[in-house]
């Protein structure tokens, strides 16, 4: 596969992944949602973060369960970023960047 096709494939995949996540925000941006819906939506960042972390936090093999230390290390700055910004987008982006840095520089 040529480099040009690979780059366009990556760009296309990024757009297809990005659009379904951003379009709902654009539609709801100018709509006044009821208080109960806003309260429910306020729990989503914590639920998503918890689901992502808990799924990968423990590693089991050969009858032994242990912590996945790379996830534990990435979790700490991501959690602090979530508490500080209270923004789902910033939290997810911070978590992805934290995990990327750990995988590049700390091959655990």
From TrEMBL:
Keyword Membrane assigned to the entry: answer is yes
- Which InterPro entries does the record associate with it? Brnchd-chn_aa_trnsp_AzlD
Q: Which UniProt keywords apply?
A: Membrane, Transmembrane, Transmembrane helix
Record bears the keyword Cell cycle: no
Q: Which residues cross the membrane?
A: 7-28, 40-59, 66-84, 90-106
The name on file for this protein is Branched-chain amino acid transporter AzlD
Query: Which source organism?
Result: Rummeliibacillus stabekisii
């Amino acid at each position: 596969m040529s480099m040009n096709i690979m780059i366009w494939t990556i760009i296309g995949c990024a757009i297809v992944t990005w659009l379904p996540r951003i379009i709902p925000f654009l539609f709801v941006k100018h709509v006044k949602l009821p208080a109960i819906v806003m309260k429910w939506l306020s729990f989503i960042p914590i639920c998503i973060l918890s689901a992502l972390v808990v799924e990968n936090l423990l590693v089991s093999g050969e009858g032994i369960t242990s912590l996945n230390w790379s996830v534990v290390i990435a979790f700490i700055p991501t959690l602090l970023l979530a508490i500080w910004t209270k923004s789902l987008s910033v939290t997810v982006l911070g978590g992805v960047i934290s995990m990327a840095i750990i995988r590049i520089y700390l091959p655990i």
